[in-house]
Design goal:
With 114 residues, the protein is mostly helical. It is 69% helix and 0% strand.
Length: 114
């Protein structure tokens, strides 16, 4: 049996690291959790958080390129949508991992590398 409090803390920490995504070292938190933890639910949450990091960076790059080509017009439109996607799903993931800690959270609308 796995410790429920540790499962909640590590899963929420893995998903919460996305709030520091402007510092590229933030992906190190879920990677470290993935390598250190033996809990299968925590490992799945860490993998999902890593995938979400990659997707946020990919979508951010796309919005940046579109913004450059449209002289900032699409950046003003798509930027807030990206922020809502980024922070909204991360907050939902933290909430889900704290309330329903027996299953890993799966982000919708993302590409999974791991």
């Amino acid at each position: 049996m796995y410790d429920a409090d540790q499962r909640k803390l590590l899963s929420a920490l893995a998903h919460g690291s996305i709030f520091f995504s402007t510092a590229l070292v933030s992906i190190g938190i879920p990677i470290a959790i993935l390598l250190v933890s033996s809990d299968p639910v925590v490992k799945e949450n860490a993998k999902e958080a890593i995938n979400f990091h990659f997707n946020v960076w990919l979508y951010g790059a796309i919005v940046f390129v579109l913004s450059v080509f449209t002289l900032g017009l699409l950046g003003w439109i798509l930027g807030p949508i990206l922020v809502l996607f980024h922070w909204g799903f991360a907050a939902l993931a933290i909430y889900q991992t704290l309330t329903n800690f027996d299953v890993a959270f799966r982000y919708p609308f993302i590409f999974r590398v791991l």
